[in-house]
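Worked problem 6 (solution included).
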Amino acid sequence: MTSPDADRTVSAAHAAEAVAGDPTEPVEAETVEELVEQWEAEKPPAAGTASNVAAAVVVGALGLFGLLGSLDLGVGSASSPGPGTWPGIVSVALVVLAVGLAVAAPRTHDAERFGQTSWLVLLGLATMVGFALSVGSVGFEVPAALLAFVWLKVLGREGWRTSVVGAVLMTAVFYLIFVAALGTPIPHLF
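Solution. The predicted structure is:
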């Protein structure tokens, strides 16, 4: 058992060591309060009400676009669902969530402001669109490998080896599951 004086001596020595150490290295928080304070200081700036409403509008537009597409496919009925049933249900859920986002926009303060790293989301979306457009003509293997590589290397900032090996392995696993084991009718090369 240590005395309170010994604990103070250790804490003082630790504080002196932190001050004397590398000033570019962050000092670790010792208490929950210090950790919360550190997180608050490091978090990105919050988005305003306009940004939150814009996010709600985008989600709502995606939901409406999906709902129109599912109606074109035909939703069928409860006893005989059509090919647009599940996309329609998901689209309605998106519209409902968009309304909830819009209503909560003035009171929401934990959303991040749109910044330089936000463009990565658009890059991810663009690669998904490219994947969807190319699968029908060249099969899913090459677009899936390219998509996985871009997401690992560019979006995930992984190394070259991890990105290449990961992309090949993911594509092989999806091929084995969906083409070989389940016989899913998707365009494929092999």
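Discussion: Residues 44-114 form one domain.
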